[in-house]
Design goal:
Layout lengths: L2 E6 L10 E5 L5 E4 L1 E2 L2 H10 L16 E2 L14
Antiparallel strand pairs: 1-2, 2-3, 4-5
Length: 79
């Protein structure tokens, strides 16, 4: 597995460091960030996604909150 570091929020304390990596073989992003609060998860569940799709978050998934400043590190295929 080959990972490439893409970015971290500048000037974060040692114990807070939202970070993004790119899995070079699959193009997947690996994101370390803040856990969504119970209120944020509930809000996501209330909004839902597509009709008929479960709003439960399976044990092997989670909802994270990605600070807006981190969006600049997300690669775009045409860039």
């Amino acid at each position: 597995m080959t990972l490439r570091f893409l970015g971290i929020i500048p000037n974060t304390p040692v114990d807070e460091s939202p970070t993004i990596w790119l899995h070079e073989e699959t193009g997947d992003l690996l994101i370390q960030s803040y856990k969504a609060t119970p209120e944020e998860v509930l809000g996501c569940q209330e909004v839902g996604s597509i009709p008929g799709h479960s709003t439960d978050v399976p044990d092997h998934e989670t909802i994270i909150r990605l600070p807006a400043v981190m969006l600049k590190y997300i690669p775009h295929p045409n860039n």
